[in-house]
Each structure stands twice: as C-alpha cells, then as structure tokens.
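Contributing: when you submit paired examples, paste them exactly as shown. First protein:
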Amino acid sequence: MSPRIAVELTSARPDGTWTWRAAGARQPKGVLDGKLLPAGASIGDVLRAEADIDIEGITVTTVLPPKGERREPERLKVIGPPRDETAVTTTGVERGRGGARPHEGPDGRPDGAAGARRSPRPRPERDRAPRDHAHRPRPSGRPAEGDGGAARPERRARPPRPEVAPRPKARKLRPRRVHRDALLAGLPQEQQPIVEQALRGGIPAVRTALAEQNAKARKEGLPEAPNNAVLAIAERLLPRLRVAEWLDRAEAALADADDLALRDLRSVVVSAEDVARDEQTRQPAAKLRAVLERRTEAEQALWQRDLEQSLESGRVVRALRLSSRAPQPGERLAPDVASRLAEAAGTAMTADIGVDRWATLLDAVAYSAVRRSVTPAGVPAEPGDELLGQVRKHAGRVPAIAGLFGIEAPAAPGRRAPRRRPPVAVSPARVAASPGASTAPPGGAGPRARRIPPPPVVTPPPVPVVEATPSAPDQEVAPAPEHPEPGVP
C-alpha cells in the first residue's frame, strides 16, 4: 500500500499538469497529472494523495476526493415539556447502630405477623447417647470439637531475613543523530536516497531498491538507473555512515557511562573494532573500553556478594536465578559457592513442601548454573498434572530430577553432518576449449575431465662400490673417481 500524504495545489500548467507541495511546508514538492484531481479543484486546495517514494523522488499516483460533511443520523424529536425522570429508582435503608434493620426485631427476625406469632418455648431434651469426639476420625490438621483449637499445630516461625537493597534500574542506550545528520546534510541531493537505503540494510537494501526501481522504469518505458554507478556510491559512503552512527552511539554511552546497561556498553565497545582506525574514533573507543573493564569488575564483585547473601538468608530461588546472570559472559561460579548452592537447592526440594513451591524451585534449578548437581531430598507423593508438565518441560535440562518422576529425558540432538558440496558441472564447450582435451566419438559418452598423472619418481644413480685389495700396511689405496672424465685412463 502506497503511503498517503497531504498535498497543496500551488499552480496549474498549460499542459494539464499541476504543481504541488506538502501541506504546510515548502518541501517536498513536485508535479502531478491533472486528470487525477477531482472536479472543481483549484489552487490552494489541500487534498489527500497516495504517492510512490523512490530514489528519483515522489510520484503522486492517486488523489483522493475531499471528505464531505458528516451527516448526523435522523432522530425523533420529542414535542412537549421535558420530564425529569430517572430510569432506575433506588431507595437505601440505613442499618441501625445495633445492627438490626428497622423492620427486624431484636433477634434479627421480621417483626411482622409471622415473627409475632412465634413465642419462645422450652424444648425438652431428647434421650440420646453422648457423642464420642475422641474416636471420630478428623481431617489431618483440624482440631477436635470442644478443645478450643489447642491441637492445631503452630506455624513454624521464620527468622527475619535481611533486607536486600534494591539495585537501580540500568538505563538503555538512546543515541542521537548528530553525526549522522551532519553527514547527510553535506551530501548532494541525488545521493541522499542512496544513503537512506544503505542505512536501512546496507548494500543488499540498495540492490533491492535499485532492482525494483529499474523494473518499474522498464515497464513504463523510462531509462534505467546505472547499477554500477549507484552501487559504487553506496560502497564509498557506507564506511563513513558506519563511523557516524558509531560516534553517535559512543557519545550517548559516554554520557551515561556509569548508569548504562552493561550489555549496551559492551555492544558499543565490540563494534568499535570495525571503525576505530583514526584519531576521531580511537580516543572514544579507548575511554569506553576502560569504562567497560571498570564496570565489569564492579558488577562481578556485586554479583558475588548478592549470591552469597541470598544463600546466607535462605533465599534459594533468588540465588539460583542469580547464578545464571553473571555480568561477564562465560563466567563460572567458584567451586565452594557452586557446591553450597546445589546443596541448598536439594535440601529445599523436599516432599513436605507444596506442589507450587516445588514447581518454582524446579524452574529455578533448570535455568541455573548448577542444574546438573542438584539432588532433591524428596518428591511430592501426589505431584499433579501441573508439576508433571513442568518436569516434562525441563526433562532435557535436569534429566536426574526427571528420572525421579519416571519421566525419560529426551535424547540430545546430535550434531548435523556437514553438507558436501555437489560436484561442479563442467560444460562441454569449456572442456573442448581446454588445452589437451580429446574429442569424444559421436554417439559416445561426453567429454571426461583429464586426469593429471602423478609426478615421476626420480631414482638417484647407484654409487659404485670400490673393493679394497690386500696390500702392505704402509701402502695407501687411492679412492676411485666417481665420474671419470673422458680420455683419462
């Protein structure tokens, strides 16, 4: 669907076209076909139009007629004096201080004829055996009648937990567009649409927009835009655009360096490796890297302290969730802290707690850093469908706990075998054009690829062996020459 804009007609040309501009502004402006205008259109009218916006400009395709006056629905007019009547009549009756309503007696019964006819009379006691409350089965946890509730077990008192100071919420990175707008303002007007497409999706977005525009121009019989020239402009301007965007993000990160979310700060530092090649970007990148190291060390120490405090105060669920939220990616728990956390989680998962509490602990264990080391102290006797659903959900993450409920953990997904590239098909023309190719007989098989023979094995010449002849002890034997020269005896 084409975007809609409000246009103001500024002038009419002799060739039947009209000039327009955006309503209430000087830009953008253009020319539209007079056949699109409704009857009675004049200069100064503000109309709604549908337009196609591309690299070359804005083309108005449809002009919608102005909205007419809204017609009110027909209503019946009441003739006569108005009547002040309410649709619903309610009458409130106040209750007296003693609690009885005006029409009730002192005992709460109606004071009418039915209540007045009854007179209090003594009822004779019936002959029945006394009830034995001691041998009557009672639900567990409920006291017997007549004991005043003394048999109800007292609630276990919890030790006061130390209050954990709430941590301030980290701010999100909200960069401005100072450097980006300055770069766009310094570019020629014809290059700005190219830059806008490059900012949206890089070079692929420019190729897509260029292909759509050329396809539309081909249908309308208009000249197509040169692909190579437009892509060259985009490739030349894209590094400058990335630097401008990174500078905007870096300035926003430096302004809120102490309160910014650590994840956003790390993303700015990591992206600096692609742009920190000159003094303009190298200095902010060094400052951000130093801030990141300082913030990471402080967050790491605070994370360790919160984890230990949660374990000491008995907040097992909070400690389990904190174990998987390390400030530094890939950070592992200390061995002593990990063993304490696994032991505390296993001790808390008993058969005496409620099913909801057991499910909460299971969910926290499944996403913690010690999920493979937790052994529950017991499981509920009647888990229920909700808890069994949670166990099936996390069976792959905690197979040992799933086995306690008789649920088999799903098999781990195997590694996918690398796909082999299909053989490259060689065209017969290319094989025939290659040097040393043999032509196949007609009706036979196609040309086959040449097989390169292995290099020949070079065997060194044998070395002649000189046998020593018996001679006198003092006589020396001269060695025979390996390669005698021709003519020498």
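Second protein:
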Amino acid sequence: MGAITVSKKGNELSLQIPEREAKELGLSQNAGYELVKARPGIWVLTEKQAEKENPTDRKVFRLLREKSLKERVEGKFESFLGKEELPRFREMLKEGSVVAFKLSSKYKKAVYKSREEIEKEETEGKIKPGQGKQAGETAGKEQEKEAQGTAQGKGQRQAEEQGTSAGKGQRQGSENAAGQSMEKGQGKDSEKAIDEYSLEKEGFVVCRNEQRAKSLSQELKKEIEDGQIKGIKSFDGFFYIIETELYEKYAGKVLETMRNSKTISSKELAEKTGLSPLLVRIICEFLKEDGEIIEKRKDLLQAV
C-alpha cells in the first residue's frame, strides 16, 4: 500500500491517501471519517454516520444560498424567517454553522454567511485564512452586547429603524451638516468639511479628488462587488459612495415625492422628505443613472 502523508493547511492537518489505495479500501469522497488512536502506533479510521439535518436548518441554509448579500444583512435577513426558524437561527449563530461576517470593523452591520461559504472564500483567496472566524467572533460579541442592551449601537440602530428621535436626529444632523457644507461656497473650506464624513458614521462618502476616489474604490472593491456599496461620479465633479442599504432605504421615498410633482429641485426634495440636501443629491445621481429621473436643467429634476 502507498504511503499516507500528512499535510498542513492553515491551522488544520490533512491526511493524503493515494486514490488507488482509497478505492481499494472503499473510501468515499462524499463520506466523513473519524480517526481514533487505538494504541501507540495504531490508528483506526471509522466512517461517520450521516446526521439527519434539521428541516429548519435546511430552510435557513436554503435562504442563505438564495438571498442576495444585501438581503442577508444583519437585521434584514431575520425578516425572512418564521417564528420557528428565528430561535433556531440564533442557535446556529452560537454554534458557528452560520456566521455574522464583517469584512471590516468599519461596517455597523454584518452579513450572514454559512460556515461552508466562509471556508470556500478562504480557499479561493477572497478572504484571508481565519478572517471569517475572527470576523464572526467580533460580530458575535457585538450581537451579545446588543442583546444585553449595553452597546451604544443598539440605541442608534433602533432609533434609525424605528424612526425615534435620538438616533435619527444624530444621523440626520450629521447629514444636514454635510449638505450645508456642500452648498457653502467652494474651495478648501468646502473640501475639508466634506472629508469629515465617512461610511462608518453617515453611511456615505463624498470625494472631489479623483485619486482619492480611486483609492477608496480599491479599498472597498470587495464590498462594491458584493453589492454592499454603490459608487458614482457626477457631472459636478464629485464622486459619491454610499451604503446600498442606506440608498435603498430612502430612494423610494425620494422617487415617490418627485412623482407627485411635475418638476422639483433637490432643495425642495430635501424639505419634503426630511432628508439632508446632500443625501438627496447623492440618491438623485443614482436615480438619474438608472433612468428613473431626468435633470431638465441645473438642479431641476423630474421623474420619468
């Protein structure tokens, strides 16, 4: 019989059995095996009994396969689960079969992925080995803090999602300041004010410098490919980058408001929707790109 070798990959050791010997021994590629030490120098390889998958687990994994990344965002994916699936889903997170994955700590919300998906991405080099585990543990700790009510982010998220005044005022206050800084003159002061805003706090970034925009796009390449981030260059020379979730949250509201008016300016849109002029402007750039609206003349918009 040929030699069986042991190879190391990451933090795991793998047994390498020549294919001919594996066939002679009746080993299957689709089966699972356990290696047990019988006594010094002798090991026993036994086939693992196939475990019956819980129907609820099957549904959760099916949803994780079928739903897009933006639908698997923490807080949104749960809406696809029924009363029976949700408690089991929480258990799967604790067990590690489902991971709340964050590519970077700068994102407030994680994306749910199965352990198999994480391992596949590590193998393909899409994420670093062990990054999935580390990101899952970090997201898990944040979820635990949120469940206990000790994390400040919980109050901010609840305020944003439920429309309560605290978090809403905090975020909209920042957005309003951004909108005002954009409209106040031009030059260094305006550019400096714009640079103060970030994806972490406001959910969008504005760049006037093309090199900065390219650099940021490269940093966010994975998120852009996964549909978590959207980016666009406008005719006014600005580069807009926004969280897809934030855009989708308000794009419908902006478009509906426009359809109730023959023509409207971004300032009027901001007043009617209660959003900041800057956020409205960013949303409108994407709506123009999608052919949903047109700009009849400078800052005079109309729904198609």
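If you have annotations for the second protein, write them as plain sentences, like these:
Residues 55-150 form one domain.
The CA atoms of residues 3 and 17 lie 7 Å apart.
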